[in-house]
Specification:
Layout (H helix, E strand, L loop, with lengths): L1 H39 L6 H24 L14 H10 L1 H16 L3 H20 L9 H18 L3 H55 L4 H29 L2 H17 L4 E6 L11 H22 L3 E9 L2 E8 L13 H9 L4 E5 L6 E8 L3
Parallel strand pairs: 1-2
Antiparallel strand pairs: 2-3, 3-5, 4-5
Helix pairs in contact: 1-2, 1-6, 2-4, 2-6, 4-6, 7-8, 7-11, 9-10, 10-11
Length: 384
């Protein structure tokens, strides 16, 4: 019985918040009508985008209320109101999200007052359900109706406020456009890095190697001992060039991923990071079918960048890495107990991590309050 009463009280609080929001909507209709009249008169055309932004905020409050009750988020899909006045007015009129918000607001004037039905249910429910539960040992029948009213409010709000498939598609296209631009920028930066490494390192050593061999050939007849020394130097140059080539190759796709798998490669990273790193592998990352090479490489480079950041900026001697094979892909979490305060604009490598993960349609979550700890979690989708 007490559990039923608590649930009914929670539902009543939810419906009361809905009624308060409905009252605010009633007051807001005056502003809306004034804006419409002023827009028709052209004098107040600049008020229309601001009014629409206010409608979006009210709808956003309702989305959050419904999400708190149901545990399911209601997504938003709006066109950005930016640019000069004419462009904002055009966006306001053409945005399908504006029409859906106005439709919800009109409907909410009616169902937003479901709390009025709660008032007679409480005294009746306390008496009827008190007798049924306390004396007869049966289930309550009246007080649960309050929770059903709250469910009805959330269900109607979700139906009216969820974006249309067209709006979701437009938002997805915009998101993919941004991630594609980021991927192109990251790819260009990677090509420039490889070109710089080859030009400044490997190419210079190969030129020196060619010169050493040429000098050795000229000195071979009249100075065999000097020629031998030049050939020894050439051999050293060749070994150094091979070492730099391996470094460049590791920057493109680390061979250790092919040899030891993702978990083994991350353990090797941890061992060479200079920190005391604990690697936890919760799921069978390397058992069964492996993730695509691009996904494994992205996770590897994210962990490498995160451990490098921790060693440089965190001030903590310890870090942890967790790898997990989830149903939708691969998840990696790197955290340390350092100073925190990681800033993407500060050149800490977080922007590069986001671009690399976004190119594969992944998700990055960074938590780094001042004083620590810092956690970087990435999830990359793939089909197992």
């Amino acid at each position: 019985m007490w559990k039923t009463v608590r649930q009914a009280a929670r539902a009543t609080a939810q419906l009361t918040k809905a009624a308060v929001l409905a009252l605010g909507s009633y007051i807001f209709i005056t502003v809306l009508l004034f804006t419409a009249a002023a827009t028709v008169a052209v004098v107040g055309a600049a008020l229309l985008p601001e009014t629409v932004l206010l409608v979006r905020r009210i709808a956003g409050v309702k989305r959050r209320q419904a999400a708190v009750w149901t545990g399911r988020e209601i997504p938003e899909a709006y066109l950005p109101l930016t640019g000069p006045l004419r462009e904002r007015l055009r966006t306001t009129v053409r945005d399908p999200g504006t029409l859906r918000d106005l439709r919800w607001m009109v409907a909410y004037y009616g169902y937003g007052w479901l709390v009025c039905l709660v008032l007679p249910l409480w005294p009746v429910g306390l008496v009827v359900d008190g007798v049924r539960c306390g004396l007869m040992g049966r289930e309550a029948v009246v007080l649960p109706l309050i929770s059903r009213l709250a469910d009805l409010d959330a269900r109607w709000s979700r139906f009216l406020l969820k974006p249309s498939p067209k709006a979701l598609l437009a938002e997805r296209v915009e998101e993919l456009t941004e991630t594609r631009a980021g991927a192109v920028a990251a790819h260009g930066a990677e090509l420039r890095r490889i070109e710089r490494d080859l030009h400044d390192g490997t190419q210079a050593r190969l030129v020196a190697l060619s010169m050493r061999i040429g000098l050795a050939k000229r000195a071979y007849d009249h100075d065999p001992e000097g020629s031998r020394r030049l050939l020894d130097d050439a051999q050293d140059q060749a070994e150094e060039a091979l070492t730099e080539l391996r470094h460049v190759v590791r920057g493109i796709h680390p061979p250790i991923l092919t040899d030891r798998g993702l978990a083994g490669a991350v353990r090797a990273l941890a061992a060479s990071s200079g920190l005391e790193v604990t690697v936890l592998v919760d799921g069978p990352v390397d058992d069964g079918p492996r993730a695509p090479a691009a996904v494994e490489a992205a996770v590897y480079f994210v962990v490498a960048e995160a451990l490098t950041n921790a060693a440089k900026h965190s001030g903590s001697p310890r870090a942890s890495v967790q790898l997990d094979r989830v149903s939708a892909g691969v998840r990696a979490v790197v955290w340390d107990e350092g100073l925190g305060g990681a800033d993407e604009a500060g050149g800490s490598g977080l922007l590069g991590i986001r671009r690399r993960v976004a190119a594969l349609d992944g998700i990055v979550t960074v938590t780094s309050p001042v004083g620590g700890p810092t956690m970087i979690a990435v999830e990359l989708p793939c089909v197992w």
